[in-house]
# Entry
Amino acid sequence: MAGSVSTLLVKPVVAALGSARLDAFWAATDLTLQLVLDGDARISPAQFCVAWAELIRLTGNPRIALAMADATPPGAFGIVEYVCRSAPTVGEALRQWVRYLNLLDDAVEVALVTEGDRACLRVTRESEAPAPASHELCFALVAKQAKQLSAQPFRITAVELSHRGDPAMYRAWFDAPVTFGAEHTQLVMPAAVLEAPLVSSDPELLQILTRAAEELAKRAPVPPTLAAQVGRVLAESLRSGEATIGHVAKRFGMTERSLQRRLKDEGVSFNTVREDVRKQLARRYLDDKLAIAEISFLLGFSEPSAFFRAFKRWTGMTPLEARG
# Structure
């Protein structure tokens, strides 16, 4: 399963854009302000990937994640962040982050790995639609907050990123060696720093927040299937004549072949999904008493006769007979 991403992770992306670029961002990502402001909403990994790609394109800044780390206020990531802040030590805070990351992003898996005298916060399973800059932001925020909250001096040993980039500015920001094109995407630190106590530790609050986080984890929503997401995009695109696989694949940040393959894995095809959407909308529009010519246009048919033929194929009746 591809997983899903909390809109809490999208808010910093939107904040980094500024209002002048938002119209282009909404159009490219199939997101809305209302959706992003809904703290309980989730989006597909593909939408998250496209959101980051659009942020970099619209700002022209491939290192925007570092600026975002400086600007992101404490508490931006909700209960998961507060659980970490309430933990007794740096190591326990990172273990809580790993434990509850799925509340924010269950398309990615992260582990805290100890290897001799070093500890690594490592991406062990990447999303099917990677957003590499989101890992940069995560590591930058971990480094920033660990330095602020650790009761003992905290330092990063290395930053290793599997994607490509220019390490110069990153080295200055992290004050540590930075490698792009690495085997793993991971934040490396001395194992000893895991035992450092946190000044924000609060055992009683941690107990309360952990219970709440466990409850959230138990009732975490099942992410929508790709077919359902494609259907939603098609419902919006039919009237504009853009209900093509090329258009939809672009909206999800995929190639046409990848989209077809993913849909096939779910037991459907693009054409089947499009037919189902048209069929559902046709019945709704007929119930709403819309004119046949208007329904034909809204469903993206070239002419009413094409809609008549399709409806007869779907239901065995003409639209007029179905309307009664």
